[in-house]
DNA sequence: ATTCTTAATTGAACAATATTCGACTTTTAG
DNA sequence: CTAAAAGTCGAATATTGTTCAATTAAGAAT
């Protein structure tokens, strides 16, 4: 047994997919070469960033989902990008936004369960520059990544 | 001119993509039939929901991004699913979660600009059952859909 | 341990799809 | 109105996905 699954999931999370030109052509009732031409243009212009898989996160050990509202400490207040970009490398984090309002950063996090979340909050999110966090735990996801669940 | 682009974007947003078996096989240094077998299993088990494109949302008229914290009115308080599922059909909404804490629903919305957001908030999100909303406007996205920007 | 059953891996043959090319058409700018 | 650029599309080719059958590995039961 080669344990292909986790490596596969790792790649499909962030790319290694491609549009189905023939299927799209059929659906739109246009020649596949026309579809091909238009897709390449979208890619060259950077309109399409990449193609990737959307998972049932419960099945890949990421069934616990949570929004994290973050306050930065006065010293880091003017520099949310540094902390945000460093957090970006964690695959548990779906999104990071620098926001207006009462919190400087808004994160969306996926981990296995509540225990894993506690550890993640303690070990990864809490750090120098992060003053306070507020967690909004998702009971149920109705839509995610533009896809209704 | 056939105006292929918007129709194409519409399809690629929610599917019409597929994994690149040959590329994955090369990357993982495994035979492509082995990769094929493992991918089909992920699909059959429902671990992979679908394959889709991730866009530069500024380039598809959705450059304005915002989190919306929603309070439901007392009458709807016990039934966040009805409102959430109805909202799910709008393609401007990236995600909808039923949450713990001070707000029953958390939405993430992408529209063209601030004016469009005002209209969307007024015409779509505000409705019977929605008592109050709080908007956290994203100044800058550092990560989105698990992909660093 | 040994057998049996099921799951996983793999190469070869085949089917389907993507890509290139060139001709033609449409759009745009001056 | 004209020339250049962008878009459409069929035919040929290159690449990739899929099926199949054989082989190996893993797990369960006696």
Q: Quick one: CATH superfamily of the largest domain in chain A?
A: Lrp/AsnC effector binding domain/regulation of amino acid metabolism (RAM) domain
Q: Using a beta-carbon cutoff below 8 angstroms, give the protein chain pair with the largest interface and the number of residues from each chain.
A: A-B, 76 and 76 residues
Pick out the low-confidence regions of chain A: none
Distance between the termini of chain A: 32 Å
**In total, how many domains does the architecture of chain A comprise?**
2
**Total helical elements of chain A:** 5
CATH architecture of the largest domain in chain A: 2-Layer Sandwich
Order of strands, main sheet of chain A, comes to 4-5-3-6-7
Helix content range of chain A: 25-40%
